[in-house]
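[User]
Protein folding is very new to me. Any chance you could explain this protein sequence and its structure tokens? I have pasted everything here:
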Amino acid sequence: MSFKKIVKSLAITAILTLSGQHASAQDLLASQAPIDKKMRTVDTLTYNQLLEREYSGLPAEDLYADWNNIYAHRATQLPDHYKIDLRDFCMPTPSRVITSNFGARWGRQHKGLDIKVYTGDTIRAAFSGMVRMVKYEAKGYGKYIVIRHDNGLETIYGHLSKQLVKENQVVRAGDVIGLGGSTGRSTGSHLHFETRLCGVALNPAVLFDFRAQDVTGDFYVYRKATYDRDAREATRLRGVQGNGSYNPADVHSTATAQNRQSESKQQNYAVKSASRKVHKVKSGETLYRIATKYGVSVEELRKLNGLKKSSSIRPGQLIRYS
């Protein structure tokens, strides 16, 4: 075989070999394509499961029966006590000026704090969580946002000039969610800020100290039995101190003192009640007979029981004799 024929034969063989490898590679890619597509689907499902797992089993899951984008707030059954984690927080605004407190105002209840901000001021998420509502209410909140947080609270930000988040969006504490404004029922630019538990408004002052730009502690324990007193005391302390600050220790110590005072009164009443000895009148008994039995005078019995000389006693009647 001539040299040219040998080279030609080798060249043809090499071309055929490369062609075969290329075809095999294409076949391999083609066969892997459905697998890659399935893997992408699996990856998406896994990611969604991870997200679902991350946002399941949170404190809020134990408190709220549903998730909706319809109601800004709807009161449900409150627990007797609930520990709220305040550690992962961000003040919604750097403003320290509170223009209206929580409580009675203009003949109705004001369910939040009004904080002085200017139109366009940055408003941030107070805690991490998920945006539940982004709505507009002309005769109320104006442009507002509701966020349900990992710690069980829901916060409401009202009268915004602009909303910068969407419903069902996950946010972290400190994320910018909107801009201050004066939309809705408002007489001037400010942030209406609410904190709610199970749809029930809590005084933000038991959680936030706007003057100090801090929370009131690492945790706040809501107690149904003492909350109303705590809320009133928080507002009272702010008024007394005149600087918007609130010390939960002062509130709880005051509440404890009030409880002790109440318990002391109850104990004194119990002691007095125990010292009051009574006799149950039997059929045919007279005041004279009862007085003789217990070694007291008839006049003393009348005085202890508010009886007149003309008063009669009846069976079953309780007569004090000491």
Summary: The longest helix spans residues 3-54. The longest strand covers residues 129-137. The radius of gyration is 37 Å.
